[in-house]
Write a structure and sequence with these properties.
Blueprint: H1 12-15, E1 20-23, H2 27-38, E2 43-47, H3 71-82, E3 87-90, E4 101-105, H4 110-119, E5 126-134, E6 138-145, H5 150-158, H6 164-169, H7 183-201, E7 209-213, E8 218-221
Parallel strand pairs: 1-2, 1-4, 2-3, 4-5
Antiparallel strand pairs: 5-6, 6-7, 7-8
Length: 222
């Protein structure tokens, strides 16, 4: 893969030396994977057990011809067209598999995200967690280095102290009960999350919280 467009700014072969795990291949996860692969990252672990549905085409990376396929297979097919040298390890549903390196939480269930973080709170092989959440026009990205102080990890976990049902109540839905989501919001928050990841690899401090509203052009970083 020819990386000369960004190699002098970001070289994955020099800046990245541990695995990447992307848990969830839906709206956030599929867009995130496309962006990571275009950066030249060649080895990624993915976790998902859902199939592509017709409604997924509007806000996820999938193609209409892939409706009915498992998302892991469909996203691997797309990413392979970007970089044939890519090595993806598909794990299916996340069920406490060992995690190392950089972990991207892209599942749509806050209870599962919290469970993953709690079970890996003292995992010395994880370097950082990156978490994404979204509604319709607004979204949030949270991140934490995992090999420093306990307080940083606790603050990250504290952002998850609510239930999946409470999250659903705060999520906009259509008149027929469909969860509302739009592609620009997804791409904006994923772009900031990937930027945060690259800056971290280049030795800059992580932004622990990034809040955006893509249609009101609002951004807050902490």
């Amino acid at each position: 893969m020819d990386l000369k467009k960004h190699l002098e700014f970001f070289d994955p072969s020099e800046d990245l030396d541990t695995p990447i795990h992307v848990i969830g291949c839906g709206a956030i996860g599929s867009v995130l994977l496309e962006m990571l692969v275009r950066l030249g990252i060649q080895q990624i672990h993915i976790y998902d057990f859902d199939k592509v549905e017709p409604a997924n085409i509007t806000n996820q990376m999938y193609l209409y011809k892939q409706v009915g396929q498992y998302k892991e297979n469909a996203i691997t097919e797309i990413l392979d067209m970007i970089n044939p040298d890519l090595k993806i390890t598909a794990h299916g549903k996340y069920v406490n598999q060992n995690l190392t390196g950089y972990i991207f939480l892209c599942v749509d269930n806050i209870d599962l995200r919290r469970e993953i973080v709690e079970k890996n709170f003292n995992n010395p092989y994880i370097k950082a967690f990156f978490d994404f959440r979204m509604r319709l026009t607004d979204a949030q990205h949270y991140a934490a280095s995992w090999n420093i102080d306990r307080e940083t990890k606790t603050k990250f976990l504290d952002t998850m102290q609510f239930t999946h049902e409470e999250a659903k109540e705060a999520t906009p839905i259509s008149a027929c009960g469909t969860t509302l989501s739009i592609a620009p919001t997804i791409r904006v928050i994923v772009s900031y999350g990937v930027t945060n990841f690259i800056n971290h690899l280049k030795g800059k401090p992580l932004r622990e919280m990034i809040l955006i509203d893509s249609f009101h052009f609002m951004l807050d970083c902490f």
